[in-house]
Design brief:
This protein is α/β, with parallel strands linked by helices. It has helices spanning 3-9, 29-40, 61-75, 89-102, 119-132, 149-155, 171-181, 196-201, 216-227, 233-248, 254-265, 282-289, 292-298; strands at 12-15, 46-49, 81-87, 106-112, 136-141, 161-166, 186-189, 206-209. The chain has an 8-stranded parallel sheet, sandwiched between helices.
Length: 299
């Protein structure tokens, strides 16, 4: 898949599968296979392997390779697979090359391990990842990495860069970026399913979906309703999405923990989280259980 073909596919929900772990925190490969098979019943625009929801930073390079290999094998070319990489320039480039060898169609670059580095160091970091393979590169702006338009325009000179994934939900800043860079990049909403109405209001038509782990139907409904400015999206948001994200925001790390526990309650392979992500408080878990019937209707 060339980079133009990839960009044409990046419309609608991009699935972000969790990486399920057993109670002993080892990889649950059969569980991962089942989860991806569920997603492919209502195919997303792409699947991002070992991303933030997939606990990239808790994986060893060998585990990263296993996750990529499994997801590529399950997809068999039906949807593009995007491999997340990060840590540092050397390791990110190695993970990118290995992922390319395994058959992914693109690379998603997370910010490096070192927070708030000098701009020149950041440029070198992203250039190294972009040069590691000929595949399309997506950059994920999250946490402390919240660059201004001039710096994004500089990164847009990376030949393989095809898309920008926003992880902050700062619509004012995002509008400035879009006005400055335009359609040189494909813009992806990446701060959460709860931000879809806001993202789509400024013209974005792709988002990374944690909800895809429990219901691709809901993820597609968000895209369809927001694309057509259908007011019915407000009911979906108030019944399912906003309460889920309110719970996810209660504690740091809950954005993954809550999704995994909801999957477990629905009979999917969520599994455990690895430290430093927290386990779920019993009172929160009971509250989450009460939402299960609504989610089960939408699976």
């Amino acid at each position: 898949m060339n980079r133009d073909d990839l960009r044409s596919r990046l419309t609608g929900p991009l699935a972000f599968p969790v990486t399920p772990f057993r109670d002993d925190l080892s990889l649950d490969i059969p569980g991962l296979c089942r989860n991806v098979q569920m997603m492919l019943q209502h195919p997303p625009a792409a699947i991002v392997a070992a991303g933030g929801t997939g606990e990239l930073y808790s994986l060893t390079p060998q585990e990263h390779r296993q996750v990529i290999e499994v997801i590529v094998g399950e997809c068999r070319g039906r949807v593009p697979v995007i491999a997340a990489v990060g840590f540092n320039a050397t390791l990110a480039a190695e993970l990118a090359r290995e992922s390319a060898r395994l058959g992914v169609q693109a690379i998603l670059a997370f910010p490096p391990y070192y927070p708030h580095p000098d701009d020149e160091g950041l440029v070198e970091y992203y250039c190294a990842i972009g040069a590691a393979t000929p595949l399309g590169l997506l950059i994920y702006s999250r946490d402390w990495f919240h660059p201004n338009a001039a710096f994004v325009q500089r990164l847009a000179e990376i030949p393989t860069l095809v898309a920008w994934k926003d992880g902050q939900g700062d619509i004012r800043r995002l509008q400035i970026l879009i006005a400055r860079i335009g359609n040189r990049l494909t813009w992806i909403g990446g701060a959460g399913d709860d931000m879809v109405p806001a993202y789509y209001a400024v013209g974005i038509r792709a988002f990374t979906s944690s909800v895809s782990n429990v219901s691709m139907r809901v993820a597609h409904a968000l895209h369809d309703l927001a694309s057509h400015h259908d007011r019915a999206i407000q009911r979906l948001m108030s019944e399912l999405i906003v309460p889920l994200y309110a719970m996810r925001s209660r504690r740091r790390g809950y954005e993954v923990t809550v999704m995994k526990e909801l999957m477990n309650l629905l009979g999917l392979a969520g599994g455990a989280v690895r430290p430093p992500l927290p386990t779920m408080a019993p009172t929160d878990l009971e509250e989450l259980k009460a939402t299960v019937p609504l989610w089960r209707e939408r699976m």
